[in-house]
Amino acid sequence: MSICSSSSSSSSSFSSTKAWILHGIAVGAAVAGALGARAYLGRSSKFRTRVIGIIPARFASTRFQGKPLVQILGKPMIQRTWERAKLAETLDQVVVATDDEKIAECCRGFGAEVIMTSESCRNGTERCNEALQKLGKKYDIVVNIQGDEPLIEPEIIDGIVKALQAAPDAVFSTAVTSLKPEDAFDPNRVKCVVDNHGYAIYFSRGLIPYNKSGKVNPQFPYLLHLGIQSYDTKFLKIYPELTPTPLQLEEDLEQLKVLENGYKMKVIKVDHEAHGVDTPDDVEKIERFMRERNLA
């Protein structure tokens, strides 16, 4: 397993399978109802039209040191993520936000715009917020694109943006897909439950819902959370000021701080062959998947 030194290989897009949005994007915008939303969402004739995609990346990681730079069939993983993000139609700009010069040098080598951020950022959301402030440009939506999903579909990026644009009572949007039975008890695969209106109820590293038998129910449509998420930029400024919450700290999931503070999160369901890279062992799995489908 090799690490990128100064890769400058040209971007080459591989064909993607269309991600079908099953539900979550309403045709008409819902009336803003959450008290938290009213506190900061103003009236606007052009609602959330300006969109930026930010890929937060850090070298230090307890589970996988230098993960953004690991080679995936000859390209650093963050390059593959950046190339996929550039194909999204809703993004006006795509940047990488990092606190590491090795990552920055690698990204500049393949043509990405880089924003240097501080090491004090506690998570990707805070890194996105700092990068946005340093850019000095006004955007309505920030899409946090996880660098460890190198096969992310551009249609999914567009889907969560449109979902947030269509739900003014929400401050956050994200995507889920079907959970594979073998991933049911993997704490690195985050699960989600959603209400009948497409809003998130809860996220967990454990299996949710959990039945009395303690076993996976093959008939139940369990949902796997995909790391990609978008925020209203006004909320993104508020987020770092919110005190960490008990559920967030216990599960180590930043999106729970949003829910615990009473804000609404829109969720879309998509058909996506999820291949996140959480550990070094996942690299071989994703390379094998790409070879089998000629996605190199």
UniProtKB/TrEMBL annotation:
InterPro entries, A to Z: Cytidylyl_trans (IPR003329), KdsB (IPR004528), Nucleotide-diphossugar_trans (IPR029044)
Pfam families with a match to the protein in the record: CTP_transf_3
Name of the molecule in the record: 3-deoxy-manno-octulosonate cytidylyltransferase
Transmembrane regions listed in the UniProt entry: 20-41
Organism the protein comes from: Datura stramonium (Jimsonweed)
Highest taxon of the lineage: Eukaryota
NCBIfam families: kdsB, PRK05450.1-3, PRK05450.1-5, PRK13368.1
Cited CDD domains: CMP-KDO-Synthetase
Keyword Transmembrane helix listed: yes
Keywords carried by this UniProt record: Membrane, Nucleotidyltransferase, Transferase, Transmembrane, Transmembrane helix
